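A reminder before we start the practical. When you read a complex entry, don't treat the lines as separate problems. The point of joint prediction is that each chain is placed relative to the others, so the output describes one connected object in space. Small molecules and nucleic acid strands, if listed, are placed in the same frame. In the example below there are two entries. Take a minute to note the order of the lines before looking further.
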Amino acid sequence: AQKITQTQPGMFVQEKEAVTLDCTYDTSDPSYGLFWYKQPSSGEMIFLIYQGSYDQQNATEGRYSLNFQKARKSANLVISASQLGDSAMYFCAMSLLYTGRRALTFGSGTRLQVQP
Amino acid sequence: GAVVSQHPSWVICKSGTSVKIECRSLDFQATTMFWYRQFPKQSLMLMATSNEGSKATYEQGVEKDKFLINHASLTLSTLTVTSAHPEDSSFYICSARQAAKNTEAFFGQGTRLTVV
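Here is the predicted structure of the whole assembly.
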């Protein structure tokens, strides 16, 4: 079974600063994908970034980057130059790639608040 | 990018009645869709995997007779909450993934169900 752990229930960051949201995962399968989603108060799930277990480079998408440390089983999200609109819940998730279970398993989430 | 549309976005129903929630993939064929439930201040929990043309696969603890899932076409899955009770009040959200793409998982807008 897969497990995602997010140990930070809440985080504060000053506007324009960078922030790191922690995520560790556990799986015995070597083929998996890691996702980060943003969930504002409206409830929609906004895809941010993806990292495959075989990807050699850390994923980046604009202000978002994923610090992937495979040996430590961590996939931390880094948001650079925080904006007020970044205030939301952030979920780390994973799925297996080839064994048929393609549903996402989610962590408990981190609530990020960006302060002016 | 691919879009998943979920309807309705919110619904209030009386205890004992049934409610149907639709999830459509608008620009791709989804042989598999996923239904999640999210209680306030909690994470998304997988309820069931909806397979086109066959029976849904339910997660442990989810009553299949209460949460009826139908996936009659490659673009539409429905979740019917039968004989709803106040404890069924929650945020229900569907997801769809394209068969050949591991890097993406798209979510509908979610449905906030309140049973009174």
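Discuss with your neighbour: The interface with chain A takes residues 32, 34, 38, 42-46, 49, 91, 93, 95, 97, 102-107, 109-110, 112 of chain B (CB under 8 Å). What might explain this?
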